[in-house]
């Protein structure tokens, strides 16, 4: 058997300590210094936290949603340190969050108390459906790359400049009815929403997980992964034409309240941006009652509309297929970006012993065949 060396010796020097095999710790430290030099040693002007939060708002919101913490300044630091890698930024935020003490637990707050900055209702129109607000959106614009040297708004005249104060001052604060409320009143909604308390993020999950806990997992799932799974589950397959309808999409500021330590009264301590979505499906399957609709709900931190819609679609699909279905298992275990990235990153770790064992087993099976197994007749056919 030919000898196999799983770890060939590397030639190191003082100029290139990363090529030395005499000190693995020194090589790791050198690699970290090179990474830090790439980040801090650039000749360009360093990015400030305000620049990242104001100009890269979607990246900051995504890092906070997947990191399960609302801290824009910390998220801006994480995005900068991760060089724009959303999964790495979420990893940094989760690791930091675990070090923080838990001072209080907020009271449950109905999302009807949200100050709406944006509301889209594709299924209804007229005064009965409530106000619709487009807000800041590029849903209806052409996807053309802006190659101008200055921002588009900077080239507008003062009279054409948008008034950004209108968005905040004109926010809707009064409760607005939803399509699902109307369907419940007409007895057209098949499944009532269960009153399950949302478990804390550090709690112990049940088996199978409750619907609210599953939504919590999806709220901090990788945005790209959950959108892809929602698309594959809803629009790809034999029943792609029977996809659900978006009935409500909202974005605004949701108040956070805690119980006063002395009086026990409800005290609002701040607000957080939240996006929520509701979808409605027509029940027309062989095992469904065609007289009813079904609904799915999704919500997440920040202004992430596509993710909220994906959560609502998967929430509806899992409930229809059952908590023990393969889809439910995939939603509960296959959407976390940190878990997936950690598994792939582990492939870069040394595998000397395990691969050596596999190689030796393969070589051991390569024994010469006996002459009896290769005898043939005169016609060339095996006897």
Task: List key phrases describing it.
single chain, 383 residues, alpha+beta, four-stranded antiparallel sheet, 36% helix, disordered N terminus, PhnI
Number of strands: 4
Q: Please report which band the strand proportion falls in: under 5%, 5-15%, 15-25%, 25-35%, 35-45% or over 45%.
A: 5-15%
C-alpha-based Rg, rounded: 28 Å
Q: What general form does the structure show?
A: globular
Give the CA-CA distance, first to last residue: 32 Å
SS element count, helices:
13
Instruction: Tell me the major beta sheet.
Output: 4 strands, antiparallel
Q: Can you tell me the residue ranges where pLDDT is under 50 for at least 5 consecutive residues? A: 1-14, 376-383
Helix content: 25-40%
